[in-house]
Design a protein that fits this description.
Elements lengths: L9 E8 L5 H10 L12 E9 L2 E9 L3 H4 L3 H6 L2 E7 L3 H18 L5 E6 L11 H11 L2 E4 L7 H22 L6 H12 L25
Parallel strand pairs: 1-3, 1-4, 4-5, 5-6
Antiparallel strand pairs: 2-3
The chain binds guanosine-5'-triphosphate and magnesium ion.
Magnesium ion binds next to helix 1.
Keywords: Hydrolase
Organism: Potamilus streckersoni
Catalytic activity: GTP + H2O = GDP + phosphate + H(+)
Amino acid sequence: MSSTGKKGAESKIVVLGNAGVGKSALVVRFLTRRFIWEYDPTLECTYKHHTTVDDEAVTMEILDTAGPQYTIHREGHVRWGDGFVLVYGINDRHSFEEIQNIKQYLDDIKKTNLMCVLIGNKSDLCHERKVSYVEGQNLATDMACAFYEISASDGGEEISELFHELHREIKRRKQMEAKPRRRSSAHQVRNMFHILFKSPNGKQPFSPSSPTGKQQFLVPP
Ligand SMILES: Nc1nc2c(ncn2[C@@H]2O[C@H](COP(=O)(O)OP(=O)(O)OP(=O)(O)O)[C@@H](O)[C@H]2O)c(=O)[nH]1
Ligand SMILES: [Mg+2]
């Protein structure tokens, strides 16, 4: 709850990517600001994180998935999530190529515009680099999402920023979806005709401008 007593926004974020790209390291770095080198590869965990974004108290639930064989084929995870952090290692070409498959799977399940952010992790290993910064940027442009190159081991402000930015996007989307949809002006004009030119028995409206002068039925929208 915020200081005003209002319940803050909530977002559910799923972290996906091939085994060993640093998903757990990234999540642990964001939550604790620490890096511990060894993370349980079988661990699949949801963290509830209370924090502040733009002066608002918020709750983020973050699902750290485990390995590709588990992550990619879990429809439940995809349906649960509001937004997705897609991670590859800049020193692991295969993990980068796999992102497109993961994204396709997400699109197939979610159908509507997907909110995600693309992460190239392990930027400290630039001597082992197999994916250029520009390739990452281009893929993010294709996917219409933000892109960050980061190092979970070195840390850095971008790690908090990427989670906060995704949270903002999720909040914006939820607010848009909550707004009642405005009818088009064409629809409003049609309705007006229905009201103005309703037949006396109140059953069928007719067109006032029928070229034959005969009664014409308007097709309801
Ligand atoms: N040099 C370097 N190593 C990293 C970085 N992030 C993670 N690692 C290391 O990469 C290995 C795998 O990291 P994890 O966080 O376990 O990877 P994961 O994606 O969670 O792997 P799974 O849970 O098996 O899917 C560990 O040995 C980490 O210490 C990084 O930014 N730089
Ligand atoms: Mg892990």
